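Lecture 7, part B: from sequences to assemblies.

Below are the input chains for today's worked example.
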Amino acid sequence: MSEQKQNAAHPEAAHGEHEHHITPPGVYIVIFLTLLAFTALTVGASYIEMNIFNPVVALAIGVIKATLVVLFFMGVKYSTKLTKLTVFAGLFTFMALIGMTLADYFSRAWGRW
Amino acid sequence: MSDSPAIANGAAVAEHHEHPPYQRHHFESVEQQADTTNFAMWLFLLTEIMFFGGLFTAYLILRNWYYPAFVEASHQLNIFWGTANTAVLISSSFTMAMGVWSAEMRKKGTLVLCLVLTFILGLVFLGIKTIEYKEKIEKHHVPGFHYSLQSFTNPASDPEIYKEYHDQPMALDMARHTELYFFLYFAMTGMHALHMIIGIAILGFMIFRARAGAYTTGHVTFVENFGLYWHFVDIIWIFLFPLLYLISRHQ
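Predicted structure of the full complex, as structure tokens:
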């Protein structure tokens, strides 16, 4: 209500790319249940022998869960382009740092085993 | 001309438009203020990602170097408590998200209820963590002068773990590195728990303020940004749980 009044009084505010988005409880409930299901899935998967794929599956499920939390619980899906860019830039920098560091350490003894 | 006092005054009045008391003067609109605060909160969370990222990187490198030690040491963790804590933390994220919704819908009673539930679930998480820490203290698995290698040089002496994993005895030079696993275990879960304690303290303050009607007047920025912090702490646990508890069960 007050937002609409605000926008009517100041048309320039209406041109802002972002109006406050309210995520309905239904979305939160679905995401909550999905997160619980993925938790059960990752624990179940850890009891199955998959050799090197155990960590791969566990981390893949972790990434899916984290993505759901970031997009819906943290509302990045409905946020401004600035916030989306910030989150992406942070993730990219983190992946570059951890990726290059691990590539260095894991390849030091390459071909010498 | 524009230097006429009447026009200048008119311009000044137009400059200083009506706005709600919670809008700072240097913002054009409430939306702009909210977006700016949201951006700042995310910048803070990025520094937190880098901080925990260093710990995660150290864990992955050392696990790769001292693989047998890290695998056997992680067999000491209790999957039941880890899973229970994951469920507790996800539930607390859900109640926090519902708290943000309550504030947006200006439902004071629901907001207080959601914040109290989040507060309680946070305490439950720390309680379960205490049970796990206590077990490690009793087994002398806390790094330091009293650290004991017995569970790793002679796994059969630790029947509860042995009957599940049947680990082979490790040579002393590799068994020593289990202490490194527990150092990282306590550093990572300890830093995570510290974030929970700070979050719970802020939640206590927010419950107090919400009861006085603070966040249900259309100004939800504080609840929203605290929600971001709380969900971030949840995300850290979403990665700690598989890396510490799950990925070494079969190795």
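Note for the exam: Chain B touches chain A through 58 residues (CB under 8 Å). Keep this in mind when comparing with the next example.
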